[in-house]
Amino acid sequence: MALLMEKGSEPQTESERDDLDAIAALKQNTAIELKDKGNEYVKMGKKHFADAIDCYTGAINRQALSDSDTSLLFSNRVHVNLLLGNYRRALTDAEYSIKLCSINVKALCRASKACFALNLLPESTLHCQNGLKHDPSNEELKKLLRQIESKKMEHEQREAQVSKAISEAKDLVSTIEKNCPPFSWDQEHDYTREAVELYYEVGSGVVHLVGGIAGLWGALIEGPCIGRFDHEGRSVAMRGHSGTLVVLGTFLLWFGWYGFNAGSFLNILKAYGESGSYYGQWSAIGRTAVTTTMARCSAALTTLFGKRLLSGHWNLTDVCNGLLGGWVLMGCNKLAEKLKYDDPLEAALLHGGCGSWGIIFTALMGGGGKLLAAHLVQIVGFVSLTMGTLFFLLHKLKLLRISSEEEMAGMDVTSHGGLAYVYTDECNDPAMVKPGFAVSRTGPPSSAV
């Protein structure tokens, strides 16, 4: 009869009251069984933790137990979530458990553990202290409180280190500000903020020239690839791989320059002249981005038409390389051919050539001969001494170059199990080849084998 009663209505007969009591007892027994079953699943190990959570959830949803017993169910589910690493869910359940029974020490302890795992140290401390109020002799809570204090000390020490580093960085920046006193060792005031920024903004010396000189020594010591020059010393073009990937890589590199060049300013929100001026570092950043775009475009166009005049055809790969260095790279390439210098990565030609021009041009525009000489000695001399020695030792130990047989076959075959690129052989019928537009397979002459 109780099943036919409307929701919210009160039982009218003794039979209805008995039915309701029976239903409540059945729910209570089921909830207790689910709780015990969940405890058994926990004892069975991690594989059964999900089943344990389902059992505790089912017992809670029965809504048949007292607040204190339901608080224990939530606390048990907290325990499983902690074992699974679900710290946020564990904390939510722990808060429900504490809300139902504020003296549930297990819930307070597990809430403290969840907060500790989530790095919520103040909340973790509070739950620990509340638990110790109700159970002063609880060793687990005491141990947890010591762990919290230890972690707080670690955080304070880390914050102190970060604060010190930030303070030192600010001091360094202020040292090279325009109105600050000069360095004690800079008697002639050559190293002002403007000189330092002008010289190092694009890293011509400390980045490009360093890499270029290192590459120069590596290529000189190892010598050219087999077949790079014919028996008369003429340059032989090596077949490329993928024009599509070359163009994609070029545009990715170009996109990165806007972050590198325009993002090299120490302070963006700084006005030139009086505060509130229309011009500032922000306008310089805009000009830098525009200059980056125009320089790359002009270099690419210079290479495009320059190579067309020199070789008689358009060359996609040369344009992608040329937009990095323009006529400087073209000139270095010509010099390398004359000297029979083979640089597969064009490290010395591109980075060394353009880096050298960067510091030379800076000196011509006001940097001074002394600054130029100092950096040439420091960069060229130091890098030559270190990298030249390193490459020489690696060459003597035969650690830099593969055997001539592997070089002729190609490392795709000898080291990687197959050809990475499939080429189509050219047509051998002279009648099918248009004069001036034939592209033949390049490779070493038979005498070079």
UniProtKB/TrEMBL annotation:
<feature type="transmembrane region" description="Helical">
    <location>
        <begin position="348"/>
        <end position="366"/>
    </location>
</feature>
<dbReference type="GO" id="GO:0008519">
    <property type="term" value="F:ammonium channel activity"/>
</dbReference>
<keyword id="KW-0472">Membrane</keyword>
<dbReference type="GO" id="GO:0005886">
    <property type="term" value="C:plasma membrane"/>
</dbReference>
<feature type="transmembrane region" description="Helical">
    <location>
        <begin position="198"/>
        <end position="220"/>
    </location>
</feature>
<dbReference type="InterPro" id="IPR011990">
    <property type="entry name" value="TPR-like_helical_dom_sf"/>
</dbReference>
<protein>
    <recommendedName>
        <fullName>Ammonium transporter AmtB-like domain-containing protein</fullName>
    </recommendedName>
</protein>
<dbReference type="Pfam" id="PF00909">
    <property type="entry name" value="Ammonium_transp"/>
</dbReference>
<dbReference type="InterPro" id="IPR029020">
    <property type="entry name" value="Ammonium/urea_transptr"/>
</dbReference>
<feature type="domain" description="Ammonium transporter AmtB-like">
    <location>
        <begin position="203"/>
        <end position="328"/>
    </location>
</feature>
<dbReference type="GO" id="GO:0097272">
    <property type="term" value="P:ammonium homeostasis"/>
</dbReference>
<keyword id="KW-0812">Transmembrane</keyword>
<keyword id="KW-1133">Transmembrane helix</keyword>
<dbReference type="InterPro" id="IPR024041">
    <property type="entry name" value="NH4_transpt_AmtB-like_dom"/>
</dbReference>
<feature type="transmembrane region" description="Helical">
    <location>
        <begin position="372"/>
        <end position="394"/>
    </location>
</feature>
<feature type="transmembrane region" description="Helical">
    <location>
        <begin position="240"/>
        <end position="260"/>
    </location>
</feature>
